[in-house]
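Sharing a chain and its predicted structure for anyone who wants a worked example. Both blocks are below, sequence first, tokens second.
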Amino acid sequence: MNLTLEHLNKYTITMEHLPKNIIWKSSFHNLYITLKTLESFIFLQLAKFFPSLSFSLSGVEGFSAYTFSGLIYPMIAVVSALSVCRFESLVDIAGADFPALNARSFLYYPLLSHYYVNRFSISTLFEDVEWVPSIFLIFSSSNWAERENWDMFGIMFFNHPDLRRILSDYGFKGHPLRKEFPVIGFLEVMYSAVFEYIKYGPVSVALLMRGHGYSNDGSLGTG
């Protein structure tokens, strides 16, 4: 039997019904979960297809799933195909860099249902040498978001139709939001009045140590 919204208020699942290899973390109750919410319906469907995932249900943060990077595409494909949930929009793809971890690259995919005003998110941590599947064929709006994460963090997406820089120029070296990237960068763009063209050159910003002193009248002096 396929569950519909009419069934949700009548159906209750206990911990005995859950597969034993599912790690369940709930902010509501440790013993039972009553399927009266859209989030719980999504949980049942994902547990059917991906029985070894970790899920989190929170009234504040919404419904979230944590997975391996290789399962990003099939998970988003399943969730977007659930017509009863109506997740029509990919809000963004947020990235982060945690250099202290072996799996230092982080991606966060928030999906939005305009009909139910509800959110579902998928998060993943992975090593920076891994390629992440592009979800362009599911949500075409991911095109620019994936390009931005490649540009800023160096996260690589396979099957992307046009993976190139989007915020920095094409000759830019490095990825600015990675923690090892220097604050002032490596190169700067400048216009040469002599040769009348734009060229690259070493960064000329001088970060000199300066001391600041305040006089009794409140004026600021530098030395």
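Comments welcome. The helical segments are 5-8, 38-49, 72-81, 142-153.
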